[in-house]
């Protein structure tokens, strides 16, 4: 396993004041022993074999315990060390590992599927506190599996994955740890575009829970031909673009209306279906002839403001506090 070296980081981010996203895509193995199942079980097997070779007279329970301990210590040293090195060299970068935390809520074929992370998974994620403490941002994946198409279950799958990220972030050392989910415009591993309701279940759900943003990922396989690129452009122009303008405008207006512009609107638990989607009776999005930028027209009505206050509350930005983020704080 090749460790990161300072030269790698400096070459990738030559600007000393770099403040963008720094996402480490490491998917070969997982830092918790219990998470290395299926094809990743080979790492547990090799870890046991290493300990057995070192201590051929040990009974199996001793070998298992030592292998688990050594594996998790090494995983922590490598992952935490990488983040520490990165933060030392580019302290303003939003350092984090792709896909963490994970909810492992893949049992969506179950008739009683709820999408919730099991207590065992949450307990294992709690033991990764060292990872959350070293991260500047969390990048959970909310790619919608192809098996969820036409099932009406994607919202449960995504809601609890994003929710788990906010749960571990709340216990992290940094009270301002950002959550930036990774999303796609397709159902995963397909060329089927997400319809509007699934955009609400992914991008809209993330925004409603208070995500600082969303990373939209498109694989190179989806852009290999002129036709596929043209299809993406058409989707962006007619579906994705208007939705993002609607959602981001809703978030901005809510911040201004409820949080003095100094915080994000976060959905209240009493209104689990609320989204930061603008009221079509108050706003319209218009296409500019000739392919120009989209334009938003309208204003919040008094009723819109009341509904926002009922459904959302504020999470203040660093340096602000109060129910409406109206007071400066000392941190």
Question: Which helices and strands occur, and which strands form pairs?
Answer:
Blueprint lengths: L5 H7 L8 E4 L16 H14 L5 H30 L4 E4 L21 H8 L2 H6 L2 E2 L15 H17 L7 E2 L2 E3 L11 H14 L5 E3 L8 H33 L4 E5 L15 E6 L3 E7 L3 H10 E5 L3 E2 L5 E2 L3
Parallel strand pairs: 1-2, 3-4, 5-6
Antiparallel strand pairs: 7-10, 8-9, 11-12
Helix pairs in contact: 2-3, 6-7, 7-8
What is the β-strand count? 12
Low-confidence stretches: none
- What fold name stands as the CATH topology of the largest domain? TIM Barrel
What distance separates the N and C termini? 39 Å
Strand content: 5-15%
Strand order of the largest sheet: 1-2
SSE pattern: HEHHEHHEHEEHEHEEEHEEE
Proportion of helical residues: 40-55%
Keywords: Disulfide bond, EGF-like domain, Glycoprotein, Glycosidase, Hydrolase, Lysosome, Secreted, Signal
Active site: 27
Organism: Carlito syrichta
InterPro entries: Aldolase_TIM, GH, Hyaluronidase
């Amino acid at each position: 396993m090749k460790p990161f070296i300072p030269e790698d980081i400096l070459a990738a981010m030559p600007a000393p004041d770099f403040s963008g996203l720094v996402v480490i895509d490491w998917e070969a193995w997982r830092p918790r022993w219990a998470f290395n199942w299926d094809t990743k079980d080979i790492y547990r097997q090799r870890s046991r074999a290493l300990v057995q070779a070192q201590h051929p007279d040990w009974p199996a329970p001793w070998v298992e315990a030592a292998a688990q301990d050594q594996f998790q210590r090494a995983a922590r040293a490598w992952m935490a060390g990488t983040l520490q090195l990165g933060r030392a060299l580019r302290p303003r970068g939003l350092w984090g590992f792709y896909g963490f935390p994970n909810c492992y809520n893949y049992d969506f074929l179950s008739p009683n599927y709820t999408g919730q992370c099991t207590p065992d998974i949450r307990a294992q994620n709690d033991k990764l506190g060292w990872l959350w403490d070293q991260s500047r941002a969390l990048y959970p994946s909310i790619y919608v599996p192809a098996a969820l198409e036409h099932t009406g279950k994607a919202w449960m799958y995504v809601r609890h994955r994003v929710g788990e990220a906010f749960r571990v972030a709340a216990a992290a050392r940094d009270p301002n740890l950002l959550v930036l989910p990774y999303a796609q415009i397709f159902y995963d591993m397909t060329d089927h575009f997400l319809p509007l309701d699934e955009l609400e279940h992914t991008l809209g759900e993330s925004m409603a829970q208070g995500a600082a943003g969303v990373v939209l990922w498109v694989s190179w396989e989806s852009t290999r031909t002129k036709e596929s690129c043209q299809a993406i452009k058409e989707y962006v122009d007619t579906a994705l673009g208007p939705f993002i303008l609607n959602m981001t405008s809703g978030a901005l207006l809510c911040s201004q209306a409820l949080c003095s512009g100094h915080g994000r609107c976060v959905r209240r638990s009493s209104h689990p279906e609320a989204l930061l989607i603008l009221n079509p009776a108050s706003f319209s999005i218009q296409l500019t002839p000739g392919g120009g930028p989209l334009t938003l027209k309208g204003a919040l009505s008094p009723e819109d403001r009341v509904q926002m206050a009922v459904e959302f509350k504020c999470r203040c930005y660093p340096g602000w506090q109060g129910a409406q983020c109206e007071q400066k704080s000392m941190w």
